[in-house]
């Protein structure tokens, strides 16, 4: 082939690659997906870390937030009991062109993506909540996105599919879709439904980024309650969530996973999308999603709990359980919890301590003078039998937590009666690679060393807030239980 023809062919090939990348709206990444840092709110890498609190203080606060989240009454009939502003994890997201870096709540129990926006930049004054009683304003957000400075910001019309997906919206501002979003604890946000380009840093493979255009999000300009952070990224099971939108815009599919580092380890976790969300280690346990009263939640069947050879079956053949990274404790139906507590109490040979009734924790032990390994050796595994024949093994770090110096308590509490479902919280998910596949309608659990799923943990400095670069993320290991 003549040299000129070869050169022209190469140019045409390059143009084709560039156009393909622009059309899909993302940086080419070979189909392996991408990972971002998943930061626990109390870790030293979080801007909300309180250095004045001891490790036990942070545990107690996290347990308290569990009850605030599970016990919050539904508001306005559009958001159910679980959805509440207490949260546990954050993720960084870059929004707009040029991008503004924000650190937002990442929540598997919510669906809407919304961010703090400047009222002026969002094209008009922020909407108000009619009939709301005056509420002291929350602390000012750390980062505010100004849409007027972005080349890719667009408003969403009232006749759009996205606007119709909202549980509560109006067109009071003409043809602009105004959203109102309420949480179970009475907190609320409102603003204009918009679209924008989201960019996710993935330094695990150089300094590559994944760019996704036309993501629907709420440009929030009015807040009631005590929001912290720069917004909220809903990772729930709905059409408005980031997971579904990534599946539609970037060829990553509607799947994600995370690997939660234990509370005792000062390290970040990994949040993975696309192929990196695959949980593939030997022994991985996969269970189907089941219909839920609230579509947002990842609900599975909890069939039984087992300790040793003793198996206790759920009432009515199965019991719905929500898998939720934003709740610290695990909450079980009393028909499962009561025999579990009795069985553990008969097997664990440690001196008893008074139950922490203030925390709803029914079984506690005095572990003064014992090392972590000595304690773990005395606690039997608890196996959760799930729908489809899956079984997940909970180790000592998944079932017990030190609530104060020398006091170890079962991190499983009775589910609120009106909740009518169990919740598998993030203590139970520590050192597990948990993968969600919305296309296959499954959740997969796998035992993993989650600190190693994010290699930057070994050398990265403490994470700064949204104005500073994030440590390099890395793919999580394929999971197994």
Automatic annotation (TrEMBL):
GO terms for biological process: proteolysis. The keyword Transport does not apply. Keywords: Aspartyl protease, Glycoprotein, Hydrolase, Protease, Signal. It comes from the Eukaryota. InterPro entries: Aspartic_peptidase_A1 (IPR001461), Aspartic_peptidase_AS (IPR001969), Pepsin-like_plant (IPR034161), PEPTIDASE_A1 (IPR033121), Peptidase_aspartic_dom_sf (IPR021109), Plant_Aspart_Prot_A1 (IPR051708), TAXi_C (IPR032799), TAXi_N (IPR032861). Residues 470-481 have a biased composition (Pro residues). Residues 1-28 form the signal peptide. Belongs to the peptidase A1 family. This is Peptidase A1 domain-containing protein. It comes from Hordeum vulgare subsp. vulgare (Domesticated barley). The gene is LOC123410672.
């Amino acid at each position: 082939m003549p040299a000129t023809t070869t050169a022209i062919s190469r140019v045409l090939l390059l143009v084709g690659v560039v156009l393909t990348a622009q059309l899909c709206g993302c940086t080419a990444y070979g189909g392996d997906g991408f990972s971002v840092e998943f930061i626990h709110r109390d870790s030293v890498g979080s801007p909300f870390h309180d250095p004045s609190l001891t490790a036990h203080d942070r545990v107690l606060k996290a347990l308290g937030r569990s009850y605030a989240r599970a016990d919050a009454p539904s508001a306005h009939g559009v958001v159910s009991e679980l959805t509440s502003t207490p949260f546990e994890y954050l993720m960084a997201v870059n929004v707009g062109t040029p991008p503004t870096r924000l650190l937002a709540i990442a929540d598997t129990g919510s669906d809407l993506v919304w961010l703090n926006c400047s009222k002026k930049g969002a094209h008009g004054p922020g909407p108000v909540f009619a009939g709301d009683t005056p509420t002291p304003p929350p602390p000012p957000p750390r980062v505010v996105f100004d849409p007027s400075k972005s080349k890719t910001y667009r408003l969403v019309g009232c006749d759009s599919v996205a606007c119709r997906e909202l549980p509560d919206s109006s067109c009071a501002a003409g043809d602009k879709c105004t959203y109102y979003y309420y949480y179970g604890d009475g907190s609320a946000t409102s603003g204009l439904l918009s679209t924008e380009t989201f960019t996710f840093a993935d330094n695990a493979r150089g300094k590559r980024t994944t760019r996704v255009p036309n993501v629907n999000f709420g440009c929030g300009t009015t807040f009631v309650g005590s929001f912290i952070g720069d917004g909220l990224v809903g990772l729930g099971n709905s059409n408005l969530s980031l997971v579904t939108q990534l599946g539609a815009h970037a060829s990553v599919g509607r799947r994600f996973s995370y690997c939660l580092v234990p509370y005792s380890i000062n390290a970040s976790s990994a949040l993975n999308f696309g192929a990196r969300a695959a949980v593939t280690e030997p022994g991985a346990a996969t269970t189907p999603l089941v219909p839920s009263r609230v579509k947002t939640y990842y609900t599975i069947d909890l069939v039984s709990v087992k300790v040793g050879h003793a198996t206790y079956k759920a009432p009515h053949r199965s019991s719905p359980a929500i898998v939720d990274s934003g709740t610290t404790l695990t909450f079980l139906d009393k028909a499962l919890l009561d025999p579990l507590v009795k069985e553990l109490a008969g097997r664990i040979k440690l001196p008893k301590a008074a139950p922490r009734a203030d925390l709803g924790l029914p079984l506690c032990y005095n572990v003064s003078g014992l090392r972590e390994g000595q304690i773990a050796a005395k606690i039997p595994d608890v196996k959760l039998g799930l729908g489809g024949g899956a079984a997940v093994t909970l180790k000592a770090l998944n079932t017990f937590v030190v609530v104060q110096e020398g006091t170890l308590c079962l991190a499983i509490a009775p589910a609120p009666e009106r909740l009518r479902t169990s919740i598998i919280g993030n203590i139970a998910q520590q050192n597990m690679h948990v993968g969600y596949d919305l296309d296959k309608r499954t959740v997969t659990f796998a035992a993993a060393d989650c600190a190693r799923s994010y290699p930057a943990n070994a050398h990265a400095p403490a994470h700064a807030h949204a104005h500073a670069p994030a440590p390099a993320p890395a793919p999580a290991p394929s999971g197994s239980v």
